[in-house]
Amino acid sequence: MKPQTMPPRWAGKLLEWCCAPHLLEEVEGDLYERFGRNMHLYGEKTARRLYAREVLGFLRPQFLKRKQETDPKPFFVDMLRNYFTVAFRNLSRNKSYAFINVAGLALGLAACIVIFLVVRNELTYDAFHARADRTYRVTLNGIDFNPSVSFAVAPALRNDFPELELVSQYYYEGESLIKVGNERFREEGLAWADQDFPRVFDFDWIEGNPATALKEPNTVVLTETVARKYFGEAGAVGRIIGLDNRHNLRVSGVIRDLPSNTHLTFRYLASWETVRKEVNLKNFWSIQGGNLFAVLPPKLDIRRIEARLPDFLVKNWPDQFENDKAKLLMQPLREIHFDQRYLSQASSPRSKGTIYGLAGIAVFIILSACINFVNLATAQAVRRSKEVGVRKVMGAQRSQLVGQVLGETAILVAVSVLLALAAVRLFIPYSLPLLNIRIDPSHLVEPAVIGVILALVCGTILLAGLYPALVQSGFQPIIALKSRMTSPGGRSLTLRKGLVILQFTFSQVLIIGTLVVARQMDFFRNQDLGFDKEAIVLFPAGQKADILRQKLKENPGVAEFSFSSANPATNSSFMPFSAPEYGMNENDVTELKLVDEAYMPMFKLELLAGEPIARQTSKDTVGRVVVNQTLIRRLGFRNPQDAIGKRFLAGDQPAQIRGVVKDFQSESKHRKIRACILAYNTSWLWQVSVKLRPEGVPRTLAALEREWQSMNPDDVFHYEFLDQHIDRIYTQEEKMYNAFRLFAGIAILIGSLGLYGLVSLMAVQRTREVGIRKVLGASVGSIVGLFSREFVWLMAIAFLIAAPVAWWAMDGWLREFAYHISIGPALFLVAVLTTFGIAALTVSYQSIRAALANPIKSLKTE
Amino acid sequence: MRRSYLGEFEEVVLLTVAVLGEGAYGVAITDELDRQTGRSVSISAVHAALHRLEEKGMLTSRLGEATAERGGRRKRLFAVTVLGSRTLHDIRAMRERLWDSIAPQSLPAVSL
Question: Which of A36, A53, A62 lies nearest to residue B69, judging by beta carbons?
Fold first, then answer.
């Protein structure tokens, strides 16, 4: 036997690599033995060649095939059972940490699911119509952005653009008077639409034929709620309803209530044919107008339509487009919900920033819950070092240990997600009143939603479990078993600090954000609007205004009253104005309010110069008007006195300024105050505003109702208080504030839970240290300080990160309002004190308890 | 057929294991086959046949001791099972029945 001569190495390797392990030894042995003999017989060279040939002979499936595990089950099942046992032992031993983890995760997941449903709802606005991506709203961009165009446009558009697949006229009217049998009701949500409308928008039809339902005049399609309200379970189709004492409409179809993600807001839809002949179909600048929708054929570029629109206008209305810069725009249907430029429409648009902000909060929340998990798990990992050590000695591989920790995380997350889903289900009914968002329970079982929830769960498991798993599985078995590990190396301690800083940062950003929103809401409510809104009730003048006037004078509960076209907080009509005399040649837009002489004193509009509105003879039509500051500024006057007696053009009528009134807020604070003209008039004053005396308001209202009803037997009395009306303008901000408060509260709560857990764990781990310190004379205060000092530092660092981030985000939000608060240092101070307060409360309980513990007990143990 | 089918090479390998008795392992079987039949067979072919026979239940095996000439590796020692033995006997009996049935002149004479 010559040890120098060996078979070829490559052949040996090949054999090792290919041959099944359980056969390898005997095969190698036989080949080696034969190699020895061949060496002896034929010499090295031949022996090596023969060896290689033999090795190649073993490359057949029979030897390649690995021996199967005879029965893998028992090992697997035993180990799994062991994992479960250990997991539940661990959880039941540390009930409070398990609770913190599960509660935090469940709350976080629930919040994330709700936010996801909200965001999804927002981003899928009007996406469910089959032709949604090809549908455009034809809008008017003159001085302003106007969502409606004259009714004259639709026929011309159909005529000049035959390639358009569908052109549909829609007009939202709002409240109307409905008569069913002999009963009358005020019903919100009347809209008119032509026969193509149900083909542009896909609704869920319960009864009726979408293709023909709106074809005939005097037909109406009801939503399910309305149909049920008036006709019960009995079929509504074929029944007759009276509309505004003018039309008798036959119900031709019933559709399901509109889903939450459409910008349309009608509740019943009357056929356009009914009123088509009554409207002005000639004048482009007619105030009569509605929304116009056009569907492009597939693959037609919208720009080819847009390019022809200017010519289209000049061709159809040659006398109405000379120096005008007005143009038609094609606004994609999917954009309507987000386009903030058009404000006067039935549903207020949502800013994408708000939606992304909410999504951001969701990320904060779930990260915060995961951070809790990571922090508690790594802090506890030391306790389990012995278990890890034993497992490793028994031959556990690292991947098995990682799997074990991930599995334990998965159990907790699974419990949490079940709790979260239950919580979401309970919350859904409150989503509309609290957040102004309709969520349907059926959304929860849609495949896409289930998919996202599963992804969320998997993501959470990995995020929360992976790092603890790597830390725990990385223990050296000898160190873990030999000595008592006191703290997991410095590295993971800094990581934990980093995570706590991150959590504090989230909390502080959200606290600052909530404070900013709260301040802005206060600003809305309390800032001087420029007019009096207290105890003023609004209702329509009805038919017999003169008798009503008389009755109001006689009513002892009425302090003052005024007839007008609109109250100060509503803008009803606009007109162009210019003043060539003062170099203002281009038209700007002004609001026009027609009022009586009682208007200004009753609403306490402040007159800066000139005279107030007074009775005028009807001969001088526009004549001498009162205007606001914005208007005279537009004309170029700084001082109100200078503007008195000056003339300008309102529409094409000359007008003279007789008085200047201080600016007042007539729209949402999203918008700058516009120019406004107050003109005396007697014929268009359809709204009554009544200032009530504080005593006996219900009695006064009842009397008003009785009198009004007797004057207008065909109508139903309905009224609204002015301050409620103003609050309604800010509904969306109010709900957004609610959402912010709710989710920020959840995020802060989760953060506090984690902090609480961490401190209590620290207190347990440092029991002996605290005992020794106390024996050596440390005071309770110094021990509480010991626990708190670290967190104060972390919080300070977090504040340095949070402040600029929050400032940047909230500044962006505030910019959406024309009038807003400024973010001052006081706000940051409040935020930082709030976080300190919350953290102090959280830390103090456990640290005081640790500090008060009897040192004899803590030192005696072990 | 009741008993499992044995290929000709398998039958020869099985017989060789019986011939070698206690010392039947890969190399020894290969050498014995070489000597008895005059055919040069590869170790891999022998191993393949041995494992097939073991799967069929005709052979059992155990690992023997390690030797220096094998580089410290153990050899696998094979022994014929009862099933293997019965199969060999069946084959032999069948052959003999066939020989007995051959009429004396029907085979051309061959000089040995």
Answer: A36
